[in-house]
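Dear colleague,

Following up on Tuesday's group meeting, I ran the structure prediction for the two-component complex that the binding team flagged. I've pasted the input sequences exactly as they went in, so you can double-check that nothing got truncated or mislabelled along the way. The structure tokens for the whole assembly follow below. Feel free to forward this to whoever is handling the docking comparison.

Inputs:
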Amino acid sequence: MKTTRRTIGCRDIHREIEEAGQADPLSSVVKDHLKNCAGCETFYNEQFKLRQIVSSIGTVEAPGDFDFRLRARLAGEKCGAARPFAIANFSFGSRSAAFATVLLLVASTFLFVSLRPTPDNSLVTENSANEAKPNEGQPQDKVSTFVPGESDVKPPKGIIGQRSDKSIGAVASRNSGVRPGTRKSVALKLTEVASASNPRVATKDMGSTQAPILKPENMVAGTGYSVFPIQPSSQSLKVSLDDGRGSSKTISLPGVSFGSQRVLTQSAPPLLASARGAW
Amino acid sequence: MDTLSTIGDFTFSAAVRTEVVAASASDHALIEATRIGDEDAFAELVGRYRNQITSYIYRMTNDYDGAVDLAQETFVRVYRAADRYQTTYAFSTYIYRIATNLAISELRKRKRRRLVSLTGFFQSKDGAEPQEFNPADTRPLPDTELVDAERRKAVQCAISTLPEKYRAPLILRDVEGRSYEDISRILQTSEGTVKSRISRARGFLREKMSAYL
């Protein structure tokens, strides 16, 4: 019992010695205990000496140019703050991220511009001309040609581009063979409105109309040839051939130009007729 | 708060400063004056604390040049944050907290990029970071001044081997002589934790400095 009380007392004494400041006087209880306890006295002496040694290392002084360097630093920071968006103010990571972002924007802009579909102005113009004067300059007696706009055969249509809205509406209405107010006409009008809002867009709406159908009576007599409405300047034409028994085949016909086709007469023999678009 | 445009604008002339800023002005008054653009008041604050802060950081890092840089960074941060300064606690507590955070950050940076020396390094039991430590030469020296210099060097080396969580409270208590209450505010821990850490730190030092005790 006596030993336990002494141990607890030493712990308390140690704590008091540790917590006391170097200049603080020890309490009388501690002083009395130190006189009777050699262990606590040794602890006190070591502690006192250690704190003396540690405090003896003292303080070091700032260098003489401390103020000048601080002034320079603050002035430099002020100059840096005056141009907060200077690239030099960014860290390496921020600069890299900014550069990558700019690079990505440039690349995506380039891709967008290069992959954007361009309107085929020549096709639009020629089809407009055809639709306005469908049979102009076509010798009907020599070669039976496929004429867009005829009642039984519907021409390729839905070409909407840099034309006036009225002509677009008129052509669409005529070619589709539907009356205004039907669903097809509404779709065409929507397309028309869309193209009117963005005049650079040229679309070929084939979804709501019937493709032109070639019939045996359209064949050129005795030659086995037929005439397609291919203008020399047209790009290419896809023709779907149906044998009437359910099997069909799609042929892509590229535009052909012989260079001198503009001077050829319309009465050229059938073989030369291909030069002006007759096949 | 006005900012400095050139180095020349930030005059530290002692004569002018004495006229403008009363030497007896409290730290709070000086920081208030700094807030409204009185650069002489800030200069007075720098003059009051530059040695203390430099010394404290030096004891923490054991690198004088680095300590000077960090002390400057401390004052730059005080200047920048003068608008946000709150007078809840003493200014010394505030500036010591900034200095402590900077010193601990520096120690952690060093720890990450440290190259362990192949010559004998000293490591304590409680996970203290290894530091080069030259054991004290216990042979008697003819000159007392040399003995003191040797002892101070040994103490500084021994302190620098302490873990940072023990180092800061020990320096603040035994070197800077700050109260437990101040230390707990600077380190943002409880007083009990501070006392416990100081006790542990002294225990480590007692082992390392046994030759001098």
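The beta strands of chain B are 121-122, 131-132.

Cheers,
M.
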